[in-house]
């Protein structure tokens, strides 16, 4: 039943060989990675006015252009910085990898934690904001606000689980529709002004209060929400078709130009039309004044709502790729680096959806409460990423390194100032949660990494361990198969036990890529073991099916009446939270194999010592252990 439902929702699984066809080029990569950034056009300008209008009144329409210009300058500094990141780090991971390589492990973990928090909040804020607009227009839906939010999170999750190619089509078209509708709004607005239209005077004070630097910095920090999402392209480089680096850099450039035109155009248009966002959403009010209640007004309103909801999709593209890179580095559970049926990082997609849904429920879908948490994380990652690139240029130099170092250094300084301003001005609004949460996540990631180091240290096979397999044994009338994922002390222990109960033993491995298979073959040969190793390639990343097919095959030559013992190697950890960090595939294998009456399943456990015991033996500071691993 579950499998049928899964096929209906997600579709048929794809083989590994289909991975190239699942990648996107510039045409579809642009909308799927730009939704978050371009959606901020819907609220970044009005956030600036929210700060300026109460303080300086009508002068706000003059100063908004100054603030917008500063944000656009920062936009292009970030664009140039991330183009360099894409070129130097084409395997994804963005700020995490850049900070880790150039500033050290701790800085890398902090960047990864900050960006992860930002992606989760992007989903919660975008969905809640979009649904707010629905229930405002259709008041009878207000009691179902949370249910609508959760439905949209589920919709985005399923869309992304269907694979990169399909999700790019589903979520790409609305992004293009929003771009064209806002472009039409800007062009239509200026044409109307040229034809002699005089906008009505707004009902606001003509304040003579001085324009202070502190006020402009607050407005600048609020408007910087227009820059959230710009980092998503550098995190998702491996999702592009070859040449991936070239396509990613092109998308980043186009995205920056689109934000320049749409954000710059709408904020400048607001100065002419004197839009006061306290009376409603700035873009919708502007569309009403330019187009009236015509067809184009409803197009702008509809596409604005859709892009606010689909802005969350950038996170569904960037977050799974980020945590997959971190999982390969063993700072988060390894399961997050595994690809699902449609060759997407499905575990990351599901976790993002679940945590975002929990946030929406916890904050009751309140955008005001959630927005206080927003943007802190992404600007921390901006600062660490650019600081990392600055240090890289100082160390490695190269052509035009002075200019590159200046760009990254100036960008790091600017984004650091923005982080401080956001953290201070929005601390009471909820930013304190992020300020507290990021160090906690960093601590958790360090604990995960140290656990994996301790596990690897205990499972590592040494040259002398090959003697463990040389034991005398009695012959039993049964056939034994030992499934092994890799060669370690747990698998050797299982093979050793197998030799005591039968002289017909097979070591069986299912590999999901050829490189993994070759490495295992080479390591297995070093043991000079008499037990043959059989490797089966699984293009659909299935584990159990290749084993059952092998048992039924002529190669294995199973005879009626034979009993087959499958010995599953397993290691156990000391603490409850450590269990979450390891695959429990053996449970599924055991359950399925026991359905066959001629198969006996035996689990061979290896109890590992506590992490602290192993790490103390290294007799080194923990930061040194992290650096050397």
From TrEMBL:
The keyword Membrane applies. It is found in: Membrane. The chain crosses the membrane at residues 64-82, 103-124, 144-161, 173-191, 211-230, 251-275, 295-322, 343-363, 369-393, 405-424, 430-450. It is a multi-pass membrane protein. Keywords: Membrane, Transmembrane, Transmembrane helix. It comes from the Bacteria. Pfam families: AA_permease_2 (PF13520). InterPro entries: AA/rel_permease1, APC_K+_Transporter. The keyword Transcription regulation does not apply. PANTHER family: POTASSIUM TRANSPORTER KIMA. This is Amino acid permease. It comes from Caldicellulosiruptor diazotrophicus.
